[in-house]
UniProtKB/TrEMBL annotation, chain A:
Name the UniProt record assigns to this protein: Intradiol ring-cleavage dioxygenase
Organism classification: Bacteria, Pseudomonadati, Planctomycetota, Planctomycetia, Gemmatales
InterPro entries: 3_4-PCD (IPR039387), Intradiol_dOase_C (IPR000627), Intradiol_dOase_core (IPR015889), Intradiol_RC_Dioxygenase (IPR050770), TAT_signal (IPR006311)
Keyword Oxidoreductase: yes
Organism superkingdom: Bacteria
From TrEMBL, chain B:
EF-hand domain: residues covered: 67-102
Gene3D superfamilies: EF-hand
Identification of the protein by name: EF-hand domain-containing protein
Signal sequence bounds: 1-22
Region spans: Disordered: 19-45, 100-134, 168-188
Matches recorded under Pfam families: EF-hand_5 (PF13202)
Ranges of Gly residues composition bias in the record: 28-39, 105-120
Organism (species): Limnoglobus roseus
Key word Signal present: yes
Keywords noted in UniProt: Signal
GO molecular function, one term: calcium ion binding
Amino acid sequence: MRESFFNRRAFLRGGAALGAAALWTPGVFAEQLLRTPSLTEGPFYPDKLPLDTDNDLLVINDSITPAVGEITHLTGKVLGPTGSPIKDAVVEIWQCDAKQVYLHTSDSGPKAKQQDKNFQGFGRFTTGSTGEYRFRTIKPVAYPGRPAPHIHVKVKKGDRELLTTQFMVRGHAGNARDGVFNGTRDLIDRELILVDFKPIKESKVGELSANFVIVLGRTPDDRDTQPTRTRGR
Amino acid sequence: MRLTSAFLLTLGLFLTLSQTDAHPPPGKKGGGGPPGSGGKAASVDDMVQRLMAFDANKDGKLTKEELGDERLNALFDRADAQKHGYVTKDELAALLTKEAAAVSTGGGPGGGGPSGGGPPGGRPRPQPGQVLSSGLQDELQLTAVQKKELAQIQKTVDDALGKILTAEQKSQLEGMQRGPGNGGPPPR
């Protein structure tokens, strides 16, 4: 039996165990929050979605064998530019497993032997009224040619893709050698895609927590109500 | 025969022109370092301004509370070297100048090769694999016929590159091609 600080069932229910809410104070001032930069999707967004696409990437369906890797509780919020939470946003994450294999036929196909078959590789979460999301996954590892460990993120609402980006591990030595990270030339933008992976004190098995706040450029509702602007301004 | 020499010429041209942009391949030390100042890196002044805009009471002292964005706490702490709980415009400028310098000299190990500088500002940096960037084409004042022929050469290069690169390497290239703007829609 796995001994985990967060019981899987409670996790899937989205119990209030993880106090993500306390980490964010919505914009007290009228200033706009800095927008999360978009970054390349890369070639490995799953070409065939797995049968299990829930927010626990460590366990596929009812398997009893968890994925290999450092267990990470990833939380965050999807916010509009003024800090208002975005409801019903679908947050998707994907990353390679601890053996450096993506769930994608052109990667997990040729590297089938190397692949950690217990890692889900991709997950989804739909935000509620607080805009919060949560995943249980592994701390990302470097990938050949990508010295910066990273997790890919896509945010959708309805049939709209609102943002595609990636985030990296703050303080990781590989960041400085990474093409995607270095392609982000703005120093402030870099801060927005770096995430602390902190040990959870109560955890006896070395679990980590990570928080990635996503600020969209415009609220989706703005865009929905103004699909085309014919009037000049 | 003519085609071969044309291809070699193209390849030579491509290598010359893309040198400024070369990233060190994985596992190889040295090389170009990250793209140089040719990219539209935000100026220090601009970044300072964006941050000082959060100085709600306009007293010239930006606090963490005013910033109200914990994503920037690490940057704030680095700038607040004196640990007095606020940062001034000058402190931010000092930090960002220092960090921007580290970025443009290549940053990490393997960077800062002889060609690390990138093209001078103003001209858009060429993408890896691009024979002549649109900026260069304009500068050279290519004729329509030349542009058409160039497009054919480009296609040959793209096809050839596409055949020899693995998905991983294409992924890397994509990362390099990504400009500094972060604005546009993600490539699909």
